[in-house]
Write a structure and sequence with these properties.
Blueprint (H helix, E strand, L loop, with lengths): L4 E5 L19 H10 L1 E5 L2 E4 L12 H17 L18 E5 L5 H9 L4 E6 L12 E5 L12 E7 L8 H10 L1 E12 L4 E2 L9 H15 L10 H8 L2 E11 L7 H14 L3 H12 L4 H16 L5 E11 L18
Parallel strand pairs: 4-5, 4-7, 5-6, 7-8
Antiparallel strand pairs: 1-2, 2-3, 8-11, 9-11, 10-11
Helix pairs in contact: 2-7, 5-8, 5-9, 8-9
Length: about 350
């Protein structure tokens, strides 16, 4: 098997069957294949990707990407003035019982939240087993596909969903599941990016490679069934589903240090480090899988887009939106009929 199409095993401490283990290992074949696939990675074009539910998520899951995800976490912390999120349950000193972190990645948000809220039971969900072994006692991780039916035995008081654009095929169904799995009075928070870079002075145009890179990536993800959508519309969609007091906040992540404002300038420095070294990896799977590009073609596009990222005469930025809403306190939660909120 070539390096560009290979299986890589995770360094997780979980026990893995020795080579050649067959039905005598005591597990049904279906369980055995699912368990093993969680601990395997697929190598493609020099990067690794999740093997479990292969192809559902487009970004790599190797150390380079995990470092980028931790950098993005710090970008959000800077954006939110050293808070983990914007919804009321995330405020320091608030009390919350059960928390779900969807698309937890490295688990850094779940771990930080668990440390800040020791009374909370925090569950992080992801397709990849990329989380650390040693975590606070009130934090745990599960490997699962959140687009499959949810089978939690208890509702959550707070669901946190960050950077899930391009991962969700049916957003209405996803938001409905979040609503259904919240306790009455619970909060859903969505934090994500509007996909295309924009500028207020017209300094980024359709002729720039940076713009073209994101247009092509958008087309590729649409071809793969997980298009980026206009994130700002999800506030209205949450209201339609039944959330109340929906709040939408917009922030800016500049493409480099071009702003004069000190905070925006710092955000631009961090966002440049988020994107410039990682464009190849972020573009590779979408363009090679969705548009049948060659690996070398992706590298050339990324090279030209990096030049635009570094150009301080291009005053571009990405809109970052934080949307949260509350499930009304009187809403029945029928799928948890055997669960008592008073006893939680």
């Amino acid at each position: 098997m070539s390096d560009d199409n290979a299986t890589v095993h995770s360094s997780s401490s979980m026990d893995v069957d020795p080579p050649g283990a067959g039905p005598k290992d005591g597990r049904p074949p279906s369980t055995r294949s699912v368990t093993d696939s969680i601990l395997e990675y697929r190598r493609e074009n020099g990067r690794t990707y999740h093997r479990y539910k292969e192809g559902k998520y487009w970004a790599p899951n190797d150390e380079v990407e995990l470092d980028r995800l931790d950098l993005v976490h710090n970008l959000y912390m800077l954006t939110f003035d050293d808070r983990l999120a914007t919804a009321p349950p995330s405020a320091p000193g608030s009390t919350v019982r059960r928390v779900l972190d969807v698309g937890t990645g490295t688990g850094i948000w779940a771990i930080d939240f668990g440390e800040e809220h020791p009374e909370a039971d925090v569950v992080g969900i992801d397709l990849s087993a990329s989380q650390p072994e040693y975590v606070p006692p009130n934090v745990r991780f599960e490997i699962d596909d959140i687009e499959e039916p949810w089978t939690f035995s208890q509702p959550f008081d707070y669901i946190h969903s960050r950077m899930m654009m391009g991962s969700i095929r049916d957003w209405r169904t996803y938001l409905q599941r979040c609503f259904d799995n919240l306790s009455p009075g619970g909060y859903l928070e969505l934090n994500d990016v509007d996909f295309f870079p924009i500028s207020d002075d017209g300094s980024i145009t359709e002729e720039h490679s940076l713009w073209k890179a994101f247009v092509l990536c958008h087309e590729a993800l649409a071809a793969l069934g997980s298009p980026f959508q206009e994130f700002s519309r999800f506030g209205s969609l949450m209201t339609e589903i039944g959330f109340q007091d929906v709040r939408v906040q917009c922030f800016k992540w500049p493409t480099n240090a071009w702003p004069l404002d000190p905070k925006l300038r710092e955000l631009g420095l961090w966002n440049y480090e988020n994107l410039a070294p990682n464009l190849d990896g972020l573009l590779m799977a979408p363009l090679t899988r969705g548009l049948q590009w060659k690996k070398a073609e992706v590298h050339v596009l990324a090279m030209h887009a990096r030049k635009d990222l570094a150009n301080r005469d291009i005053h571009a930025y990405f809109n970052i939106l934080s949307i949260y809403g509350q499930k009304p306190t009187g809403t029945p939660t029928t799928q948890f009929q055997n669960f008592s909120f008073n006893d939680a």
